Amino acid sequence: MAASFLLSLIFLISTLSLLASSSSPSKANPNPTTFTIPLTPIFTKHPSSDPIKTLNSLASASLTRAHHLKHPKSKSPLAKTKVFPHSYGGYSISLSFGTPPQTIPFLLDTGSSLVWFPCTSRYRCTDCNFPNVDPSKIPSFIPKLSSSSKIIGCKNPKCAWISGPNVVSRCQDCTNSENCTQACPPYLLQYGSGSTLGLSLSETLNFPKKLFTDFLVGCSIFSTRQPAGIAGFGRSPESLPSQLGLSKFSYCLISRSLDDTSESSDLVLYSGSSSDSKTSGLSYTPFRKNPVSNNSAFLDTFMEKPVFDAVVTAFKTQMGNLPRAADVEAKSGLGPCYNLAGVKLEKVKFPDLTFHFKGGAKLELPVVNYFAFAGNSSVVCLTIVTDSGFGPGLTVGPAIILGNFQQQNLYVEYDLENERFGFRQQSCNK
C-alpha cells in the first residue's frame, strides 16, 4: 500500500495554532473545523554569500533526494552526502507535546509519515552546524519532564506502524509473556537530506482547543543533517493527518524569489468530514499512491531524464536567440542558463510551462516559478533538475516531483477524504 504522496515536498514550518473537532470522520459535516498554522522560514540568513554556490547547493540537494526517492533500499551513507542545510526556502512548524507541554520546531514533510523530535538532553546531530544553528542548542524534548510520556511496547499495535507487521517476532522477551514490557525496537529512518535514530513514545499532542492523547511520536537520540524534528504528513497510520483524523489540509506558499523573509503564510488543517464538496476555484486531480515512504521533496522540480530532455529541448528552441551562460551552469548545477546582459527583460519571451494532470486539470506556472536569476547577476536559469537516468536496480519512482519553488503563490489542497489534489493561482502574501 502506498505510504507517501506522489506530489511530495519538504517544508519547514514555524508557529502553530490549531483547533480540533470532535465530530467523527465518518459523518458528513457541512462546516468542518479548520486548523490555521502560520508558515515562516526557520532561518533568516543565506548559507552562503555566493548566489551561484547557493544555487549549486539547491540543485545538489534536489538530486540527492531524487536518488533516495528512486532507490529507497539504498544503503548509501547519506550522512556523507553534501546537501543544502535548509537555511532558507522552506517552512517550519512548532508543535507542543507532553504534560506540561514542551514546544518543539518541526519540518513538515508530505513525503514521510513519522512525527519525531530531538529527544533527551543527550541528543546529538552530526553535520548540523548550519548558519545560525548551534548543534549544542537544538531544542530537545525531555521525556522525564512530562508525566504523559510512555515508551511504546513491542506488542503495542502502534509499534507495527513503524517496525512492520512482523515486529512481534523480533520481541524476544515477549515470546512467552502476555504482559510484555519490552520496548518497541528502535527506528532508523533515512531521508534524502539525512537520517535519524530513536525510540517510539506515546505522548499527548497539545492544541489550543483539544488534546490528542496516546499520540505516537519518535524520540530521536541521534541524527545527521536534521537540526529539527520532522512532522510527517504522509499517508501511513503514524502520520500527523492520520493520527488526527484530518479530512484535508491546505497551504499557500509566499513568493520567495530565493530571498529570505520574515513574512508568513498559513497551513490549514481540516477536521471532520467535508463530504464531496469542492473548494471554489480549485482544479482537482486524483491522488496516486507512491510505494516509497520517507521521501523528501525538493526546492526544484525534479524530472526523470527522458521527460527533462524533452522539456529542455523545447526551451532551447524558444530561447535560442539568447547566449548560454555555460560558466553558471557548471557552477550551479542548473541548466539551461541564459545571459540577459544588455537585454531588456520585458523583451524576453520565456517559454510557457504547463503541467497537465489526470482529470483534465492544468497547472500553468508563472515564469518566476521555473526561472530564477543567479543572485543579482543578469543570468537566469531553469530551476528544474534531473539525474543521469533510471540507472540499474530502479524499481519505483515518479516521473516528476513538483517542488515547493514551483508552488509559490499557489493555493494547494490535499483532500484526503476524497483522494484528490486541488490548486489555484493566487497571491499568498498577507
Automatic annotation (TrEMBL):
<dbReference type="GO" id="GO:0004190">
    <property type="term" value="F:aspartic-type endopeptidase activity"/>
</dbReference>
<keyword id="KW-0378">Hydrolase</keyword>
<feature type="signal peptide">
    <location>
        <begin position="1"/>
        <end position="28"/>
    </location>
</feature>
<feature type="domain" description="Peptidase A1">
    <location>
        <begin position="91"/>
        <end position="424"/>
    </location>
</feature>
<dbReference type="GO" id="GO:0005576">
    <property type="term" value="C:extracellular region"/>
</dbReference>
<dbReference type="InterPro" id="IPR021109">
    <property type="entry name" value="Peptidase_aspartic_dom_sf"/>
</dbReference>
<protein>
    <submittedName>
        <fullName>Aspartyl protease</fullName>
    </submittedName>
</protein>
<comment type="similarity">
    <text>Belongs to the peptidase A1 family.</text>
</comment>
<dbReference type="InterPro" id="IPR032861">
    <property type="entry name" value="TAXi_N"/>
</dbReference>
<dbReference type="Pfam" id="PF14543">
    <property type="entry name" value="TAXi_N"/>
</dbReference>
<dbReference type="InterPro" id="IPR034161">
    <property type="entry name" value="Pepsin-like_plant"/>
</dbReference>
<dbReference type="InterPro" id="IPR032799">
    <property type="entry name" value="TAXi_C"/>
</dbReference>
<keyword id="KW-0064">Aspartyl protease</keyword>
<keyword id="KW-0732">Signal</keyword>
<dbReference type="InterPro" id="IPR033121">
    <property type="entry name" value="PEPTIDASE_A1"/>
</dbReference>
<dbReference type="InterPro" id="IPR051708">
    <property type="entry name" value="Plant_Aspart_Prot_A1"/>
</dbReference>
<keyword id="KW-0325">Glycoprotein</keyword>
<keyword id="KW-0645">Protease</keyword>
<dbReference type="Pfam" id="PF14541">
    <property type="entry name" value="TAXi_C"/>
</dbReference>
<dbReference type="InterPro" id="IPR001969">
    <property type="entry name" value="Aspartic_peptidase_AS"/>
</dbReference>
<dbReference type="GO" id="GO:0006508">
    <property type="term" value="P:proteolysis"/>
</dbReference>
